[in-house]
Amino acid sequence: MILGIGPGDPRLCTPQVSAALADATDLVGYRPYLDRVAASVDAVRHGSDNRVELDRARHALSLAAGGRRVAVVSSGDAGVFAMASAVFEAIEHGDAAWCGLDVAVMPGISAMLAVAARVGAPLGHDFCVLSLSDNLKPWDLILRRLRAAAEASFAIALYNPVSRARPWQLGEALALLRDLLPGTVPVVFATAISRPEEQVAITTLAEARGDQADMRTLVLVGTEATRLIRRPGNTPWLYAPRGAPS
Ligand code: SAH
Questions:
Q1: What totals of helices (H) and strands (E) does the chain contain, helices first?
Q2: Of 143, 148, 149, 222, which residue is most buried, by most CB within 10 angstroms?
Q3: What is the mean pLDDT of the chain?
Q4: How much is the average pLDDT of 194-220?
């Protein structure tokens, strides 16, 4: 089983995923994600750091081939910048017997959906999703995709905006967007959504800075059409109108 446990709040983990976790004999995943699985789940926990995805996938597949009921755990949705791809890559290039395993992928609530719901409905019209991490793809390709998304007026959700090893990428991405879009376009910095330390800041592209994000932040860039409804004493609502301007 390959599953996503949602963005943090246990209530945002689907009943299907909770049942699969309760049934598993082994949990495989990045250690902080395994720590979020309820202590009542009585399975062997194989925690790892976040740089060894393929090794982790192979390990899970060998355990499953040996008859264990293995849950490969990601945060959010396992298919969005997460372990599901690594598992299929390992199957395609690994032991032929792994193709015969009963692999199920269970959807989860991805960070962009939790963040969008938290601030209103900014992804209600066409949008696109990018990871700003250049660990697995060249920075040039990221800039090319970002430029194309901005030129096509997509709202943009940016995953992995920064990490300790990648401190400058978000600043450069915002600078590129400022060259292409009006400074009034709203930008959301949503950190650790649905967890106790949650933080949301809504600003404009003109004022957005790269140091407003950390590893737990999703950055949402609106479009010229994104509407903002001010609410005294509270964060404003943002929404994408149902129709795009013609
Ligand atoms: N599979 C996950 C994404 C993993 S990539 C999903 O579908 O959500 C890790 C990135 O996801 C982080 O750098 C951050 O950009 C985003 N993220 C994950 N959880 C988040 C949360 N609770 N709040 C805001 N962003 C989050």
A1: 7, 13
A2: 222
A3: 96
A4: 97
